[in-house]
Amino acid sequence: DAFYLEAVVSTQSTGTLTKHINTVHARDRTSGILYCDQCEYKTPTKSHLRNHMLAHSGNRQYQCPHCTYSSNFSNALTRHMTMHSRELFESKAAEASTGTSASQG
Predict the structure, then answer these.
(1) Predicted confidence band at 4 (pLDDT cuts at 50, 70, 90)?
(2) Whose CA is closest to 36, among 22, 69, 98?
(3) How distant, in Å, are the alpha carbons of 71, 95, 100, 105 from that of 77?
(4) Rounded distance, CA 81 to CA 24, Å?
(5) pLDDT tens-digit profile of 10-60?
(6) How, if at all, do strands 42-43 and 34-35 pair?
């Protein structure tokens, strides 16, 4: 069976390419640990490294509709949204206890 790798890294330096291959695609031969080539992060799992690399991309595709929070992961946005639900619940509870509405001012 043949496996093909589509490269998304472009460099003019063979040293840079070698570093990328060794950090992103190859494990430390003795420990089996994968290393991020942009920070000190390390993991034994390729999928964790792939997810971690999204943090360096600056592209956060999941945006909160209520504030400026954004994330690379839908589950992180879902967890964040519980904060807004809690705030709304607490606001309505306060209104009920005082008999006023935020819209009444």
Answers:
(1) very low
(2) 22
(3) 6, 27, 31, 31
(4) 32
(5) 666 777 777 766 666 655 556 678 888 888 888 888 888 888 888 888 788
(6) antiparallel
